[in-house]
Amino acid sequence: MRIEKLTKRFGANVAVDTADFHIGKPAMVGIIGASGAGKSTLLRMINRLTESSEGAIRFNDRDVTHLTGRAKREWQSQCAMIFQQFNLVPRLDVVSNVLHGTLNKRSTMATLFNLYPTEDIHKAIEILDRLGIAEHAPKRAEALSGGQQQRVAIARALMQDPQIILADEPIASLDPMNAQIVMDALRRIHEEDGRMVIANLHTLDTARNYCDRVIGMRNGKIVFDGRPDQLTTGAARDIYGAGADFSEGATSTDINALETPQQARIRDAEALV
Ligand SMILES: Nc1ncnc2c1ncn2[C@@H]1O[C@H](COP(=O)(O)OP(=O)(O)OP(=O)(O)O)[C@@H](O)[C@H]1O
């Protein structure tokens, strides 16, 4: 994938400013940065949910920046998106939610009457099984925990057999244990299927633990692009625009790494002593 000088303006605000990077082979890439840095806008431009103002998106040497109609829909199913809030139909059962991943390929009549080919139903259950949630297949989506719902959303994405999975803050609404289950699932999908995963992540430790490459954004610009081991505290401080008081704990999903107010007071007191 080649992203060339990709820019998005919302009026005078430049949400993404000449983003430029190349992903040579399927990798697991994390995008980090403070709130408002432009991470979601970048992913949404890649998926064509948001139109870019300038620049280009190329995949396998094909320019997908201005595709329309059917070609655009095909591109959107090649790079399936997963969202922080799962975007499932809450009152619908899990299997039907997963089958919604095939909507692009089905006729309006079939969709209206909820008619799915048996092989699609089997495929949906297989994918749910792979993600460890097949037993929940007949339940309503709203009856599942957040981590389970996010796995249903991943299953829905996999129904499209995408080459790329774009995950926009996939674990931001989850507790640390469920966050780990969902990130493990994304990593496995990358390793076992060879799919590219690009995930916007709020937390540094997740990017370090799961990604082969980390892109750091600040005020719409890419300010870091490297391996997780190059992501030092200093580099992180530049990305988050934080001062000397920058605490990695504040960008961590690890319960133990989160400092309680009492711990902070003890640390301050110790510093004084
Ligand atoms: N539809 C929109 N209309 C106007 N401005 C927008 C729109 N979407 C995003 N922005 C602005 O673009 C900038 C980047 O937002 P974006 O949501 O991409 O950042 P982010 O890094 O994903 O933040 P967060 O982590 O909070 O989701 C922000 O200043 C935001 O206010």
Structural class: alpha/beta
Named once each, the bound ligands are: adenosine-5'-triphosphate
Q: Report strand order across the widest sheet.
A: 6-7-8-3-9-10
Helicity level = 25-40%
CATH architecture: 3-Layer(aba) Sandwich
- Strand residues, percent: 15-25%
- Secondary-structure element string: EEEHEEHEHHHHEHEHEEHH
**N- to C-terminal separation?**
53 Å
Organism: Allosediminivita pacifica
Protein name: Phosphonate transport system ATP-binding protein
GO cellular component, one term: membrane
GO molecular function, one term: ABC-type phosphonate transporter activity
Give a structural overview.
This protein is of the alpha/beta class and about 270 residues long. It has helices spanning about 40-45, 70-80, 95-100, 110, 120-130, 145-160, 175-195, 205-210, 235-240, 260-270, and strands spanning about 1-10, 15-20, 30, 55-60, 60-65, 80-85, 165-170, 195-200, 215-220, 220-225. It has a single domain (about 1-270), classed as Rossmann fold (3-Layer(aba) Sandwich), CATH 3.40.50.300. About 35% of the residues lie in helices and about 20% in strands. Mean pLDDT is about 90; it is low at about 255-273. The structure holds adenosine-5'-triphosphate. Adenosine-5'-triphosphate (ATP) binds near residues 33, 37 and 38. Adenosine-5'-triphosphate (ATP) binds next to β2 and α1.
